[in-house]
Amino acid sequence: MAPARFPLSLFLTLIFFVALPQAIANTDPSDVQALEVMYNALNSPTQLTGWRIGGGDPCRESWKGVTCEGSAVVSIDLSGLGLDGTLGYLLSDLMSLRNLDLSDNKIHDTIPYQLPPNLTSLNLARNNLSGNLPYSISAMVSLNYLNLSNNVLSMTVGDVFAGLSDLATLDLSFNNLSGDLPPSFGSLSNLSSLFLQTNQLTGSLSVLVGLPLDTLNVANNNFSGWIPHELSSIHNFVYDGNSFENTPARHPPAFISPSPSGSHNSHHHSGSGSHNKTQAFDNENSDGHKGLTAGAVVGIVLGSVLVAAILLLALVYCIRKQKGKEKGARNFSGSLPRGVINVTPQMQEQRVKSSAVVTDLKPRPAENVTVERVPVKSGSVKQMKSPITSTSYTVASLQSATNSFSQDFIIGEGSLGRVYKADFPNGKLMAVKKIDNSALSLQEEDNFLEAVSNMSRLRHPNIVTLAGYCAEHGQRLLVYEYIANGNLHDVLHFAEDSSKALSWNARVRIALGTARALEYLHEVCLPSVVHRNFKSANILLDEELNPHLSDCGLAALTPNTERQVSTQMVGSFGYSAPEFALSGVYTVKSDVYSFGVVMLELLTGRKPLDSSRVRSEQSLVRWATPQLHDIDALARMVDPTLNGMYPAKSLSRFADIIALCVQPEPEFRPPMSEVVQALVRLVQRASVVKRRPSDESGFGHKTPDHEAIDTSF
């Protein structure tokens, strides 16, 4: 029997050793799926040899540019291949990925909000990426190299760098970034190279003081003020093309030899705007014999001490004399504007807290940035904590533009007051919200300008821009950009012309645009902005049916008591989440629920609450939710004005997203970033709209009527 057993055991051993390498080489399924989604989003390019969708094994089959360790993908290098498309929505599933290089391609759309969390190197330079920096960068604590240069990134640089202590190289050059440098730059304790040239950045460089920089390029921006002398030690420093008041000085002015030209304006930058530390030291050594004698130095020191003593005595005399005067007779002639009260330590602490929490809402360069003196009912004066970046209007100018707030100019009415169409002499059309003073308590009235300051910093293509405000003569008014095509609620429920019914394409695009707006408020803004009044009536549509979310930030003007809010901002029955009705708690997940209700409106064409229907169908959520996963019932639920013109699978996936958003338990609802990804995936699969590289959101144009809808999905 023994001889018979030997061949069998040998055979089994051979099978084991043949199968073992294949088992080891099998790529992690989540990595495979993420690469397949990226491949599809890049339009399945022929340059990516070995890549395929379905049944592939990147590690065993050696997909182009993919490096593995065991079964995990650890590096993707696809630079310079001429790839055209987007990055997909599953990059965050590449948990073991350390290096991602997609530079020198033609990739467009925004950078995905969710990136591989354990990257040490990310290079997306020289593409056509738009939008701003995703907040997920803040969680990439192992990141050592980040290059996003030569794209079309815009808005402010997000304050996402606080935890990136390992970052050594940061390149954001040749974009269209604006605003001040974020405070978290000061946390980059290992940063040696920083490239910010050719943007629209403003403010000062003071946040960079103390960083171990060896290379710094800030050329061709809008920086101003004085260059901190601490930056003079940077080996390679390029700073031309700004409005600095000085160059990086290495010595006190008394020890600087006059230039050959004898110019008295040498403190203004007019040269090449760069310097090299080694060259500077060589110049110092070559000019060393021109220094002052010991006697001259002693004379200068003694004279300086005498002058300082005289100034000190004079200062003491002035202070004592000033204290003898009454407070009412004080006259500030320095930098404080007349009428501004003295800054107490408590107010200073408030300012520090304000600047710390409003991190990603940096203001763009403002036409009217002032520190205002705000009279309140108690007769005291309230100091603004942060500047306002929108224009200040007078009551007279707004009265003139609205024909004295005529009834004929009313275009809407909300919980805080009426909205008027304003026609200015220059032909500009705006929307003016006149806030009813009875809707604001004393405290909220005092906080009006602080709320305006925060609202004016919200910048997103799917959010209605606050263009100005008015706070005089007891009036409180907000001036917004005018969106001409009405709101989603009226288009869905009161459109008399059936030819104006929204197509399926338009409905998906509206859902995606408003989801992006909420994602910006919840996950990009710091701290998060809760809308509290999300409903179809607050989604305005422009001429191309792009959505613009209104009333963002207005929750700051409502009472702090949650129960009171129910009669004001959260007074739209049918949209409120269950937890608000039960406990008065309202969070970002409550906004997600309201978004799901609006998606139900888009799907069914029904109102959230409709008393004209039979009792079982009056509440849209209660009626629709049990049927969302029933294909036959779903087909009967669809808005009849669509006339069956929709892709069946696209409809089913749309319903799946709704079901997630309107779950009763807030903890089970997805964050808006996941909702956005799901809608993007729906669009990519169903080809609902065609993308344009110039469109930040990817879906910002109306689909022509003759454009066929792909129903094969």
Account of the 3D structure:
With 713 residues, the protein is α/β, with parallel strands linked by helices. It folds into three domains: 51-250, Ribonuclease Inhibitor (Leucine-rich repeat, LRR (right-handed beta-alpha superhelix), Alpha-Beta Horseshoe); 369-481, Phosphorylase Kinase, domain 1; 488-686, Orthogonal Bundle (Transferase(Phosphotransferase), domain 1). The protein is 29% helix and 14% strand. The chain is built from 18 helices and 27 strands. It has a ten-stranded mixed β-sheet with strand order 1-2-4-6-8-9-11-13-15-17. Helix 11 packs antiparallel against helix 14 (588-604), helix 11 packs antiparallel against helix 18 (672-686) and helix 14 (588-604) runs antiparallel to helix 17 (648-661). The radius of gyration is 31 Å and the shape is flat. The chain starts with a helix and ends in a 27-residue tail after the last helix. Residues 1-6, 12-24, 250-272, 277-291, 323-384, 560-571 and 687-713 have low confidence and may be disordered.
Q: Could you list some keywords that capture this structure?
A:
713 residues; alpha/beta; Phosphorylase Kinase, domain 1; Transferase(Phosphotransferase), domain 1; 3 domains; ten-stranded mixed beta sheet; six-stranded mixed beta sheet; 18 helices; 29% helix; disordered N terminus; disordered C terminus; receptor
Mean pLDDT: 76
Principal-axes shape call:
flat
CATH homologous superfamily of the largest domain? Answer: Ribonuclease Inhibitor
Beta strand %: 5-15%
Number of domains: 3
Structural class: alpha/beta
Number of helices: 18
Distance between the termini: 60 Å
Examine the coordinates and then state which fold CATH places here, giving the name of the CATH topology of the largest domain.
Leucine-rich repeat, LRR (right-handed beta-alpha superhelix)
Low-confidence stretches: 1-6, 12-24, 250-272, 277-291, 323-384, 560-571, 687-713
Give the number of DSSP strands: 27
Level of helix content? Answer: 25-40%
Question: Major sheet: order of its strands?
Answer: 1-2-4-6-8-9-11-13-15-17
Query: Architecture of the largest domain, according to CATH?
Result: Alpha-Beta Horseshoe
Main beta sheet: 10 strands, mixed
